[in-house]
Automatic annotation (TrEMBL):
This is DNA topoisomerase. GO terms for cellular component: cytoplasmic replication fork. The keyword Heme does not apply. It catalyses: ATP-independent breakage of single-stranded DNA, followed by passage and rejoining. InterPro entries: SWIB_domain, SWIB_MDM2_dom_sf, SWIB_MDM2_domain, Topo_IA, Topo_IA_2, Topo_IA_AS, Topo_IA_cen, Topo_IA_cen_sub1. One of its GO terms (molecular function) is metal ion binding. Residues 892-968 form the DM2 domain. Its EC number is 5.6.2.1. GO terms for biological process: DNA recombination; DNA repair; DNA topological change. It comes from Hylemonella gracilis ATCC 19624.
């Protein structure tokens, strides 16, 4: 009988195999596992299984309403993670083998590693438990000896049950709060119609709150004028600068902007400058040695911060590059770590890493590695080697494999890690720091200088060393000219410099990652703060995904390196405060969970008790949203600068709408004009609202969602309703294209984008399209002779004027990345290119990174490959013929779908592709003028369409589903 060892990652499985080979015999390598007489070793690739509610408890999007909430299933079912189904099936097959009678959980030493294994084991068992004994391999070091020692000291399944309970509880609690919170807030925001997706989560929402609170501080900040006095002093050896300060100044907790070197009125500042200018001065100074040690090794968060600050890489990009250096190049250790230390038995590995760097082709790193080896810098130190500070994984360091063939970005990140790894072993940098006080006319001026005596670890950074120092004031780095004992100096110049206080800086990804990591400091209760001290918001592995999720959900925008919260973000915070469920936006929630989960790990709290509390919290959140009965949610709302288009009154914001409150601004003489803040689930930004009111039109804008949740792009307009005697908001989908009115078009005031690829005429912007001058009736040519036309928005991708000019000049646009498939609703990238053969603009795609292997694809090459294989040996003739037959079948073009009799009456009875069906239906709708003139999203069915739709009126979003039932 054999023991199945399941690691979390393939690289760990390989390490285990290498460590066990000397003691248990050679392993044979298979596709998904290694095997010898005693062990079968395989691995997951992170999470292979995720939890889900049983089918009867799951509510699909589009039916998210309070009637279906809260969703608190009595148990959770499991489903495979789509991307890794193949690996899951392979692991499950091994676990079920009859000759496997024991399992060893070798996933990472921590809560998440425990969960990964437990879910795989549960899934493998199906309805019944797998029933095979389980032991736990607990590794904090990956040296061969540490792995062998771990196998000698396996932990029992019973010992690990409290950790397993905590792991499951965290996962299920996140699901309950995230799913119910998101659906409750979405239901609340969608009560007036449409679908306004409002996601919340235990980590996502407090992270967003941090960004919103900073933006609120910036918006409320009132800049104040202050003055500094800068003087230049002349000594025998030359000049030096000094800044005035008040030696009696004390810190003011209520006003952090007050500082010792600031004066708050110009008169006092000028008086001091005038009093000291030209005066003799006395000097006292103090010089003392100072040292600065290298920063500690990288964990993922600190690496993401550094790469964002130095190179502008996003957290997601840094993780992706580090993952590539780990998986593909084998050049870095596992990057998803929250530890900045190495195991205590890693000294020998560290020395070998220095030897590799010293002998490598990396000329910019090799000399420093050689210096460290020569001078014996690589030695034990608790600052580097500390088992107590190694969690699931140790710090990110170079492996023993010298990299080659790296991209520019990969090389930058590798150098960052390699330099930090070497620097931490080098001696501290040594400085001589001088503080000089110059007194002139009873006023004191401070001058500071810092001289590098021995570079130590800074030698590794060369010219970049200044960027690595922790000086808050770079002025301190300059060298001061010497002053003799008792020397009198002269105040040669003194000026009052007027400055303004500045608001706090917006978050960048680097500073937001720091805020997430240190979120425990924001928690007031000591126990909860302590529980979060090692955790923060999220984990190093998830923080990048949290930030990207907030960007994708349009809660934040990235402008340069700044992260700016959107109107949607402010609206969510207003909602949570107004409903009284602010706990969703506070890091204290994570602190409370961490405290209770740590109690569970120690056996001081039961899983059942914790999950009861989570269920109660979930019910509370839903109840608050469901029972809120006021018209608006209290908040800090804006008053618009643009007046009401109907009566000229003041327009104010409330939670749901922008509404006229009359010329007095009190609502007494309001005219009734208002429009939603969230048309089709997209929140207006304030500048957009002002433009919309002023111009009565805006767009095209992206980010709208249909009632079913699908995204779309449209213009919106204010149209006057004679019936209501007021203005109202309408969507303009561009169906009434002004280019097709039949009226003569005048292009005389417009500039051409280029020559028409069909006829050589000039191309102009016209209506919602780019058209050839000969494709519309003009003064010079009443009857169009060309049909070139290309939309300004194609599948939600705006086609900018510059891109159309490029297509006309070169035949192809740049790679555009905002197309959204009508069929799958997924975004895709493509070029737009002129297809001369078909006489139209069409898509052109990037070459696949994973081209199909010759012989596997359908077509002539596959057929030829099959024939060649058939001719090689007589013994294989039959299989080869089968392959050839398969190839012939695959080469047949798709016959299309057959329309029902009802649908055939509209589009004809020929077999047709699904996409072509929808096009023909829309052609028919437009030709018959069946769009409702009051609501262009609605279609009025005539006698032919009624049997197809099954009703008199449908929305544009229903058509695809209804027509699909008539195709076979």
């Amino acid at each position: 009988m054999k023991t199945l060892v399941i690691a979390e990652k393939p690289s760990v499985a390989q390490d285990i195999v290498r460590a066990l080979t000397p003691t248990s015999g050679k392993f044979e390598k298979h596709d998904e596992h290694f095997e010898n007489e005693q062990y079968v070793v395989t691995s997951a690739v992170g999470h292979l299984v995720e939890i889900q509610a049983p089918e009867q408890y799951d509510v699909k999007r589009g039916k998210w309403s309070f009637a279906h909430l809260p969703v608190i299933p009595p148990h959770f079912e499991l489903k495979p993670v789509d991307k890794t189904k193949t690996r899951l099936n392979a692991v499950v097959k091994l676990a079920k083998r009859k000759d496997v009678d024991k399992l060893i959980n070798a996933c990472d030493a921590g809560r998440e590693g425990e969960l990964i294994f437990r879910l795989i084991e549960q899934y493998a068992g199906g309805a019944k438990p797998l029933g095979k004994p389980v032991s736990r391999l607990w590794l904090q070091s990956m040296t061969p000896q540490a792995i062998r020692d771990g196998f000698e000291q396996l932990r029992s399944d019973k010992q690990m049950l409290p950790l397993a309970d905590a792991a499951r509880s965290r996962s299920e609690a996140d699901w309950l709060v995230g799913i119910n919170g998101t659906r409750a807030m979405t239901a609340f925001n969608s009560r007036d119609g449409g679908f306004f997706l409002t996601t919340v989560g235990r980590v996502q929402t407090p992270t967003l709150a941090v960004v919103v609170e900073r933006e609120e501080q910036i918006r409320k900040f009132i800049s104040r004028d202050y003055w500094e006095i800068h003087a230049t002093f002349g000594a025998q050896a030359g000049e030096y600068a000094g800044k005035w300060f008040d030696p009696k100044w004390k810190k003011n907790e209520e006003d952090p902007e007050k500082k010792a070197d600031r004066l708050w009125n110009e008169r006092d500042a000028r008086a001091i400058a005038d009093a000291v200018r030209g005066q003799p001065a006395t000097v006292t100074e103090e010089s003392k040695p100072s040292t600065q040690a290298s920063p500690t090794l990288f964990d993922l968060t600190s690496l993401q911060r550094e790469a964002n600050g130095k190179f502008g890489f996003s957290a997601k990009t840094t993780l992706s590059i580090a993952q590539s250096l780990y998986e593909r190049h084998k050049a870095l250790t596992y990057p998803r770590t929250d530890s900045r230390h190495l195991p205590e038995d890693y000294l020998a590995v560290a020395k070998q890493t220095f030897e590799m760097l010293a002998d490598s082709h990396l000329k910019h790193l090799a000399p420093h590695a050689a210096t460290a080896l020569k001078n014996g810098y690589v030695k034990p130190s608790k600052r580097i080697f500390d088992n107590a500070k190694v969690s699931d994984h140790f710090a990110i360091i170079p492996t023993l494999q010298a990299p080659s063939g790296l991209s520019e970005a990969e090389q930058k990140l590798y150098d960052l890690v390699a330099r930090r790894f070497m620097a931490v072993f080098f001696p501290s940098a040594e400085y001589m720091v001088t503080t000089r006080i110059t007194t002139a006319a009873s006023h004191q001026f401070k001058s500071e200088g810092k001289v590098l005596v021995r570079p130590g670890w800074l030698a590794i950074y060369g010219k970049e060393a200044e960027d690595e120092t922790d000086d808050k004031d770079k002025d301190n780095s300059k060298i001061l000219v010497p002053v003799q004992a008792n020397e009198k100096v002269k105040t040669q110049a003194a000026d009052a410099k007027g400055l303004k206080t500045r608001p706090p800086a917006r978050y960048s990804e680097a500073t937001l990652l720091s805020a997430m990591e240190g979120a425990g400091k924001m928690v007031e209760e000591d126990e909860l703060r302590e529980a979060m001290s090692e955790k923060g918001l999220g984990t190093p592995a998830t923080r990048a995904a949290i930030i990207e999720g907030l960007l994708n959900e349009k809660y934040m925008l990235r402008e340069g390196r700044e992260l700016i919260p959107t109107a949607k973000a402010f609206q969510l915070m207003t909602l949570l405060r107004g409903l009284g469920v602010e706990e969703l936006s506070k890091p204290a929630l994570t602190g409370e969970w961490e405290y209770k989960l740590s109690q569970m790990e120690r056996g001081q709290l039961t899983r059942e008790a914790f999950m009861r509390e989570i269920a109660a919290m979930t019910e509370h959140i839903v109840k608050k949203a469901k029972e809120y009965d006021r018209d608006t949610v209290p908040g800090d709302y804006a008053t618009l600068a643009t007046p009401c288009p109907n009566c000229g009154g003041v327009v104010k914001e409330n939670y749901r709408r922008y509404a006229c409150v009359g010329k007095k601004g009190t609502g007494e003489d309001a005219c009734g004009f208002s429009f939603t803040k969230m048309p089709a689930g997209r929140a207006f930004e304030l500048p957009e609202v002002e433009q919309f009111l002023r111009d009565k039109r805006i767009g095209p804008l992206e980010g709208f969602r249909s009632k079913a949740g699908w995204p779309f792009t449209a213009e919106i307009a204010l149209a006057y309703s004679e019936e209501e005697k007021n203005w109202k908001l309408e969507f303009d989908f561009g169906n009434e294209d002004e280019s097709e009115t039949g009226e003569l078009v005048d292009f005389s005031g417009k500039s051409s984008l280029g020559a028409c690829p069909k006829c050589g005429g000039a191309i102009y912007e016209h209506g919602k399209n780019y058209v050839c001058e000969k494709s519309v009736p003009t003064q010079t040519q009443a009857t169009p002779s060309c049909d070139f036309k290309s939309g300004q928005i194609i599948l939600q991708q705006p086609i900018e004027r510059e891109q159309m000019m490029k297509l006309l000049a070169t035949g192809k646009t740049d790679l555009l990345d905002k197309f959204v498939s009508m069929r799958t609703r997924r975004p895709f990238k493509a070029y737009l290119a002129w297809n001369a053969e078909e006489g139209k603009v069409s898509f052109e795609f990037e070459p696949s990174k994973f081209p199909r292997k010759a012989g596997a694809a359908a077509g002539a090459r596959a057929g030829a490959a099959a024939k060649t294989a058939a001719g090689k040996t007589a013994a294989k003739k039959a299989p080869a013929k089968k392959a050839a037959a398969k190839t012939k079948t695959a080469r047949k073009p798709a016959a299309g779908l057959t329309p029902s009799a009802e649908l055939a009456a509209v589009i004809g009875s020929e077999p047709v592709a699904r996409t072509e069906v929808i096009k023909k239906i829309w052609d028919y709708i437009k030709a018959q003028g069946l769009q409702d003139p009051k609501d262009k999203r609605s279609v009025l069915a005539d006698a032919k369409l009624q049997p197809v739709f099954g009703k008199d009126r449908v929305t544009m979003f229903e058509i695809t589903g209804l027509v699909g039932k008539h195709l076979s």
